[in-house]
Amino acid sequence: MAQIAKMELQIELKSSAERFYGIFRGKRYLIPEMCPDLVKNVKVIKGDWESVGSIKEWTLVTGGCERMREIVEAIDDEKKSITFTTLEGDITKDYNDTKAILEVSGSSRPGCSIKWTVPYEKKNCDLPDPSKYIDFLQLISQKIDAYLSKTA
């Protein structure tokens, strides 16, 4: 069995922490409008847009069309942190227990810092790290920030 590892990404953004966090907290349905070249669709499969336990299905553009289902595992509004766990999708072919943890820091003033942490476990030691997914998180974060900055 492979060892659990993690990849991290930290980005400084122009938009406020509250606005950026708000998109992932309960307005992910806006992401296809903000990033049409990266996300074709996001829909609720179970639950709603805001609750722990809710399941969303994403249609992503990551070098092709890819579907992914995630469950919201944890939300901490005080720390502006959300944990998403991947249930299905291409990433689950090569990795076990894949999560994406978003932490947003800053205030209501423009500018914030975000951190994505992706813990994962390779199904086979010969597999590469899931860097394409970290790259995707960086791109989507930057595009959402640009969109929010334009509409401020």
TrEMBL record:
GO biological process: one example: defense response
Name the UniProt record assigns to this protein: Bet v I/Major latex protein domain-containing protein
Domain spans labelled Bet v I/Major latex protein: 2-151
Family the entry assigns: Belongs to the MLP family.
